[in-house]
Every structure is written in structure tokens, then in C-alpha cells.
């Protein structure tokens, strides 16, 4: 094969040509990407990170530092690969010890409100504190601590003391504090603040080793009574635990019950001490020393503090005074604990009571105005479902108490994932979406409720938070066109549609219980005032969505006829207008159409003829009326001239002629509808004068002609 000759003076390089084509291709792709980015600004930049040029040499790395860093990275990466543990027939990955150490490593400063490790440590110190509070009085009064088991009591006491010391020296000096609204996390400042507080003084007193007195006075648990001064840590643990619990009222009830049991425990210990002071079994009132000493004394304390009665009467003065003080203290303590328990339970059920009160008031209102039972049942169902699903009737009431930033943070966590799925808002300003999240309203629809109806004006957009809705259509409006589930959006076009294009095209009904977010048009317009770029983008997207939704749905594919039938085109369907006019098929329908056409032409000709007849009649009547008026005027003028020029002696001869003349006709306006009257006729008579009437043009332009009437006497022959 011969190569095509190239034109003289023009040489092509195949490699350069291929490179140029590749560059052109990449430039076109880049232009396409930038066009898409202009339509949707949320897209990230299409430019990749710059790569090093092959012609340039890399700078030589520092020899020692980078090698050390690479070795460290390799050493950190190896344990993750090798930490596997074989146990029986299973092999599982075991996290390295360094991760545990990093998690357990104590930070330089501790946030007492959010650090869960600090709460766990407070719980450990609280357990040690409760050990001392419960068992120091028990060991001091009851003979439970003996030389044979003293070593066990001492071991647990030492463990509790270690917890106290660690809290004093390690944890409390690292706790952050507020100063003038600022969070102080400096080590020196935190330590100085703790050392200057009353809590530090009590903590120091609570760890003083008064146990050295054992060597002088013997083993007596009363020397450890200072351990009960660490009560601040106990109450701090209660506050921190309630802040992180979902149902804190349960812990409050347990804590209040613990207070009651502890008071009864102290009363039982005091009763055993009083019985020992009086002598066990010396009287009927004291403990007789039989049975389990602690349970018998605790039973007596319960009956005394709760004032049940049925106890033996005190005998001695000491017993009487002790019993009176016990009764007074029991009434006060028991009533206080009952009131506190009532407050705890009341606070726990405050929401339930509010819900019940609202529902009762609504039912009372409906009964007052005789609302139908069907409507009342639906209202009750709405109350019950809303309370069961949300735990409250209106979520906005709870969020209104918080600052705007906290409301926004909660709204982002709850609703941002749902709103972000809406195609209409993709590419809009993120801050605009945040403002919109704060305006969303949550509404619950019952099964069968109409969310929106066909033909009504659309002013809201709906986002399905939970449940399902059905879009109904068809001739009777009962056919289910589509079912929308959680996360779906509908009605978004109504927010931006204008010029009558925001009417609902179908009925939307809640299939079951449906919880929907609603954003109305007025709220969106108030937001878009501050975001003009987002408003323009939304308008563009709304037009695109309107065009896409306005396209007809693609029908089934048309099958092409086979054989010779494929050579002829398919006959087009007769338009519906012609079908309605024809009212039939074939020749009958065409005959009807022609007959209708002829009738229409006949009617048009009749109307034209009628109009022309009426017009000629009106013209004729107007002409006759004009002639009549002109003739009447002429007669009047002649009568006036004759009467003015007659001589006095000729009055008698003229009078019969004048009397025989008819009176002048009255002016009549021409009326097209009235019949034309016959013109007035002048009666004839004999006279010696002759009447000459002539018309001459006027000397002035524009005045027409002048009528002249002359009366001359006839000559006697």
C-alpha cells in the first residue's frame, strides 16, 4: 500500500498529534466537570493534588530523622498485625496493651461533667465511704469484731484508706474549675484551687491515721469515725450519676430508700447500746440477748421510728427519755423521707401527669360541645400514640429552654440526615439548611388522615420521619399510585412554585401512624432573604424539577408490524373533538357533519338579510321624517310673511283663508320605531297674491343655501 503524499512544506509528527488530541480531550472533560460544579457548588474541586515533575529530582531526605520516624511507624504497625490469641478452636484478634494504657492513662486535667472515668472513680470512693458509714457503728456497738477476724476487717479498712489517699493526692488536684466564666485547666491553678477549698480540709481530716491509738487504748473502731467526713465525694457522685442516667428518678428512689435504711440501721445500733448500758435482759424494754441481735434490734427500730406501736413499756427514767426522743426523731425523720419520696415520684411522673391533664381537659371540652364519638376516639388515639412515641406532646417546648446553639446541635443530629436527602436543597448554603432545621415542625397523622388533598394550594413541604403515606389517584381517587416511607420527601415543589403551579395534583393519605416534618413556604421565604445565592439555585432547581415532573410517563413499546404491513404507516387516531362532533362512525357521521354545516350557512345568510332589511327600513324612515320637517318649516315661513305684509283693509278677505288653513304642525322628533305620519296638506283658497319660493347659494362659505320666499300681487287684466 502506498502512503498518501503530504503537501509540500507541511510535516506532521504522529506523537505530537496524539499528545495534542489527549490534551484537548482532558480539557473538554475538565470543562464538563466545571459546568457541573457551577450547577452544584457542593461538589469538591476536580483538581487533584499536584504531583512532582519527573524532570526535577527529589531533595535528599535527612538521613537520621526520617529513618527514625520510619522505624517508629513500623514498630507501631507491627503489633496490630501480630496481636492474635488462640483459645481452644477459635482465633481472635486481641487489642494491644498500649491501647489499654492510653485509655487508662490519667489526663492532666479532668472535666468532672463529661469524663466517665472520673464518675467511675467517684463510685469506687463512694463504696469505700459507705463501708465506713455502715460498719464503723456496727463494729463499735455489736460484738462482731473479734480477735479471730480482726485481720479481715483491717484489710478492708486499708483498701478504703488507699482509695481516700488516691482521691486526695491524684484525682482531686486535677479537676477543672470555673473562674470568671473560664475553664481553668492549668495544673498549678487547679492544685491551688483544691487546696484552698473546704473539701480539701475535710478530705485531709478523713485520712488522718487515728488508728495509732490502737496501741494505747486497744482496737476500737470508734477511732475510724473521721472516715465518715468524706461526704462531699458521696454527694458529688450522686449529682454526676444523675446527669448521665436516662431515668435518673429510679436512682433517686433507690437513694432515698437507702437513707431510710441507714437511719434505721443507726437506730438499731443505738438501741443495742442502750440495752447494753441498762443490761441485756434486765427489763422487758431492753434487748434480752436471744436470737440474732442485729435483726432483733433492727426490728425494734423499725417499729419505733414508723410508730407502729405494740412495744413493751419503758421502766426506768433512762428508758422513758430514750423512748420519747426516739418517737420524736422517728416522726420527724419518717415524715421528711416520705415527703422526699413523694417529690421524687412526682418529678418522675410530672410528664405523665401533664399528658393526662391535657387529655382530660380535651375530653371535657368535647363532651361540653357534643362532639361525635368518632372524632373523640380519634383525638384519644392521637394523644396516646404521640405520648407513646415521643414521651411528650410537643418537642418544641423542651427545646425552647435551651440556647439557640444547643437547639441547632440537637436539630443537626436528629434531622440533618433526613433533610440532606432532599434533592431540592443539595448545593445550598449549609448555614441556610441549619436555619431551616430549627424551623421544622413535627406533626403526627393518624391512619386515614389526609396529609394534603388534590386541588388545594400547596404551602408546605413534608419529610417523612416515621411511618408511611400513600399517594392516591385514579378516576375515583382511591387507587394507590405509590407508597412513600421514612426518609421520603413530597411537596417540595410547592415551596417555590409560582403563577398557579402550586396546586396539589393528588391526595396523600397516612397509611398508618405517620410522623412528618413540615416546612411552610412563609418560613422558607424568611430564611432565603438572607441567602440570595441559595434562592437563585433553588429557583433553577425548582424549574428543572417542574419540567421533569411535567413529562408524561413513557408508555409500553409499540410493536412494529411484520411483513408487508410494515410498509404502511399506522393510521393516526381521530381527534377527540371530531369524535364528539361526529357522534358516530363512517358515512353516517360524515353526513351529520355536512348537515350541520349547511344549517349553519343558512342561518348566517338569514341573519345577514335580516340585518340589511332593518338597515334600509331605518334609512327610509329617517329620510321621510327629514322631508316632513323641511316642508313644515317652509309652510310656517310662508304664513308669517303673508300675515305681515297684508293691508288693513284686506283683513276680512284674508281671514277666511287664514281660518281655513290648518294650524301649524308641532315639531316631532323622528323615531325609527314609530310609523311615519302622512305630511300635512295645505288647504287651497283664492288670493290676489302670488308666492315665489327660490333657493340661492349663501355668500359666506360653509353656510349652505338660503331659502327666499317672495309674495307679489297679481296684475288685474
UniProtKB/TrEMBL annotation:
It catalyses: K(+)(in) = K(+)(out); Na(+)(in) = Na(+)(out). Keywords: cGMP, cGMP-binding, Ion channel, Ion transport, Ligand-gated ion channel, Membrane, Nucleotide-binding, Sensory transduction, Transmembrane, Transmembrane helix, Transport, Vision. Residues 424-528 form the Cyclic nucleotide-binding domain. It is found in: Membrane. InterPro entries: CNG_cation_channel, cNMP-bd_CS, cNMP-bd_dom, cNMP-bd_dom_sf, Ion_trans_dom, RmlC-like_jellyroll. The chain crosses the membrane at residues 118-138, 150-171, 200-219, 249-273, 317-338. Residues 63-78, 611-633, 644-654, 666-676, 702-717 have a biased composition (Basic and acidic residues). Its main location: membrane. Residues 684-697 have a biased composition (Polar residues). GO terms for biological process: visual perception. GO terms for molecular function: cGMP binding; intracellularly cAMP-activated cation channel activity; intracellularly cGMP-activated cation channel activity; protein-containing complex binding. Residues 35-78, 599-717 are annotated as: Disordered. It comes from the Eukaryota. GO terms for cellular component: intracellular cyclic nucleotide activated cation channel complex; photoreceptor outer segment; plasma membrane. Pfam families: cNMP_binding (PF00027), Ion_trans (PF00520). It is a multi-pass membrane protein. SUPFAM superfamilies: cAMP-binding domain-like, Voltage-gated potassium channels. PANTHER family: CYCLIC NUCLEOTIDE-GATED CATION CHANNEL BETA-3 (PTHR45638:SF8), CYCLIC NUCLEOTIDE-GATED CATION CHANNEL SUBUNIT A (PTHR45638). This is CNGB3 protein. It comes from Pampusana beccarii (Western bronze ground-dove). The gene is Cngb3.
